[in-house]
Design brief:
- By secondary structure, the chain is mainly β.
- 0% of the residues lie in helices and 53% in strands.
- It contains no helices and 11 strands.
- Strands 2, 4, 5, 6, 9, 10 and 11 form a 7-stranded mixed sheet that branches.
- A hairpin with a 7-residue loop joins β9 and β10.
- The protein is globular.
């Protein structure tokens, strides 16, 4: 059974930092690309960052570029999202997801972790 479990969310102030983690089990993590998405109330889900299987290539949305860093530790089957200089508009539920090398869509999803940034 594939499981993705996010952790590390919480309530912080504007300018603070958080690191989210995504623990993956039930699949060969090193063969799966990974991404972080977020969804705020009343808004569409947004992909904020993605990373290839070996971590060699990363992409970011314009809204987080320069503040967020995605990474992964294939030995620990865990992905991370380091979030610095958080802003109130970063408030959302954050989800991690994985997809196989030839997959177009992200196949497996976590349950999400809430990040709330106060001004």
């Amino acid at each position: 059974q594939v499981r993705l479990v996010e952790s590390g969310g919480g309530l912080v102030k504007s300018g603070d930092s958080l690191r989210l983690a995504c623990a993956v089990s039930g699949l060969p993590f090193e063969n799966y690309g990974m991404a972080w998405f977020r969804q705020a109330p009343g808004k569409e889900r947004e992909q904020v960052a993605a990373i290839t299987t070996n971590g060699g290539h990363t992409t970011y949305s314009d809204s987080v570029k320069g503040r967020f860093t995605i990474s992964r530790d294939n030995d620990r089957n865990t992905g991370y999202l380091q979030m610095n200089d958080l802003k109130p508009e970063d408030t959302a539920v954050y989800f991690c997801a994985t997809k196989g090398k030839i997959s177009i869509r992200y196949e497996f999803w976590g349950q999400g972790t809430q990040v709330t940034v106060s001004s």
